[in-house]
Design goal:
It is a single chain. By secondary structure, the chain is mostly helical. The chain is flat and about 40 Å long. It contains four helices and no strands.
């Protein structure tokens, strides 16, 4: 396992033990970076306006669709470290 992947997995575990819950924008950023790092570009249709949470999550992911998996992992790690 690469060093980056190991640090990413550690950051994922640490994200569940943050001292306080991040605001919604930060949570969306965490979600988008995680999805981009683990799955790549967004798939499927954008949820409709009746699913606001799903739509916001999809948009957060789609906003960073051009980042590589490694870039997304590193940004995720940096973001989680900044919240600790």
């Amino acid at each position: 396992m690469s060093d980056l992947k190991a640090r990413f997995e550690k950051a994922v575990a640490e994200s569940k033990q943050l001292p306080e819950k991040p605001d919604n924008q930060t949570l969306l950023a965490i979600y988008g970076l995680y999805k981009q790092a683990t799955e790549g570009e967004p798939t499927g249709k954008r949820p409709g306006f009746t699913d606001m949470v799903g739509r916001m999550k999809f948009d957060a992911w789609a906003a960073i669709k051009d980042k590589s998996s490694d870039e997304a992992m590193q940004e995720y790690i940096d973001l989680i470290e900044s919240l600790r």
